[in-house]
């Protein structure tokens, strides 16, 4: 019988021989040629499986090392770090998506060690603070709070207790908030954390905690940020209660009021007078109370208003509000 036939009959001996010739310290008993006890056979099988696992693990480690070396020669790694971080920023979804943003960032982190080190050092990519229900992402974001980058707060699904606990950590950085999708705190402690001005805030979505609609705490108007957010352009308020004369409701480009406390026609007209550049106006499922009749001769000229939606029961109140402004470029 030639050597090839022997190798095909007993490939284990060839593997052991090759391993021995490479100086491996792993010893494995060859399959017995003569019938012996089951205990010896089981031991041989155990050693064979152990050797196979060790060999596969060594191969996998070597393959990963080679892949890492090869990745370092990729053209993208020859780009400056600043440019790579800029590319990463373009590949990420809008910060307001919150958890989805952090999940995509996590995917980028797992590509290779080089990317992970760059992303970890780029504070601008860690500017999203998500719900306390996502502790792994929240911890990473809070580590970067000492940077000067704008912050995006996305905690819509949080309970009042969860959000108040988070506010203790992030409220000192309200001056850096650029967008906020948050619940309205019910407790005095929680509201105190949101009483500081938010000079960089551009977009606010405000809700009350789930299951608390109609609670006494939510029926009391609360002027969040003490009414000071000079750059605010877009606001959506659902169920929560703001003072209708709040400065937050002035100078807006988008206003969405949903299931809020009833508003008088005069207050609605005051808001429109204070938002001459308004593009979108939505009032959904809330009462507009008649307290005056609009003077069409004093109607506000709102040339940029493109979308108007009123879904309320009091048609008389709606009519008076509509009479208070002109929207020649309205599309819907």
Write a structural description:
The structure is a single chain. Mean pLDDT is 81; it is low at 1-16 and 22-29. The protein has helices at 3-9, 11-21, 38-72, 81-91, 99-109, 113-121, 135-143, 160-170, 188-193, 216-219, 265-273, 315-322; strands spanning 128-129, 151-154, 177-183, 203-207, 234-238, 254-258, 263-264, 280-284, 288-289, 300-301, 307-311, 325-326. The strands form three sheets. The chain has an eight-stranded parallel beta sheet. With 332 residues, it is of the alpha/beta class.
Short description:
With 332 residues, the chain is an alpha/beta fold. The chain contains twelve helices and twelve strands.
State the main characteristics:
eight-stranded parallel β-sheet, disordered N terminus, 332 residues, alpha/beta, two-stranded parallel sheet
Broad structural category? alpha/beta
Give the terminus-to-terminus CA distance.
89 Å
Mean pLDDT across the residues is: 81
Oligomerization state: single chain
Question: Would you count the extended β strands for me?
Answer: 12
- Contiguous runs where pLDDT drops below 50 for at least 5 residues: 1-16, 22-29
Assign a percent range to the helix content.
25-40%
Indicate the radius of gyration in whole angstroms: 32 Å
Main sheet strand line-up: 1-2-3-4-5-6-8-11
Helical element count?
Answer: 12
């Amino acid at each position: 019988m030639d050597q090839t036939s022997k190798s095909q009959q007993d490939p284990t001996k060839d593997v052991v021989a090759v391993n021995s010739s490479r100086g491996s310290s792993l010893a494995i008993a060859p399959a017995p040629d003569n019938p012996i006890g089951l205990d010896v056979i089981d031991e041989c099988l155990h050693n064979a499986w152990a050797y196979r696992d060790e060999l596969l693990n060594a191969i996998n480690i070597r393959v990963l090392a080679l892949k890492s070396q090869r990745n370092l020669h990729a053209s993208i790694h020859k780009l400056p770090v600043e440019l790579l971080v800029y590319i990463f920023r373009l590949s990420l979804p809008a910060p307001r998506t919150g958890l989805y943003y952090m999940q995509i960032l996590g995917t980028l982190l797992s590509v290779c060690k080089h990317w992970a080190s760059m992303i970890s050092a780029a504070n601008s990519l860690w500017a999203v603070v998500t719900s306390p229900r996502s502790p792994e992402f929240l911890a990473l974001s809070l580590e970067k709070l000492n940077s000067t980058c704008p912050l995006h707060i996305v905690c819509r699904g949080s309970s009042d207790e969860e959000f108040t606990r988070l506010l203790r950590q992030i409220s000192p950085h309200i001056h850096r908030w650029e967008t906020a999708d948050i619940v309205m705190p019910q407790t005095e402690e929680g509201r105190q954390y949101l009483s500081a001005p938010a000079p960089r805030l551009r977009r606010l979505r405000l809700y009350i905690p789930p299951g608390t609609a109609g609670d006494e705490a939510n029926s009391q108007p609360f002027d969040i940020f003490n009414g000071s957010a000079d750059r605010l352009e877009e606001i959506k308020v659902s169920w929560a209660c703001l003072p209708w004369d709040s400065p937050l409701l002035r100078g807006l480009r988008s206003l969405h009021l949903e299931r809020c406390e009833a508003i008088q026609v005069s207050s609605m007209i005051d808001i429109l007078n204070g938002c001459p550049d308004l593009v979108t106006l939505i009032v959904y499922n809330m009462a507009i109370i008649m307290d005056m009749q609009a003077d069409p001769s004093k109607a506000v000229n709102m040339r940029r208003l493109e979308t108007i939606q009123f879904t309320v029961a009091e048609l008389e109140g709606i009519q008076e509000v509509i009479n208070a402004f002109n929207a020649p470029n309205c599309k819907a």
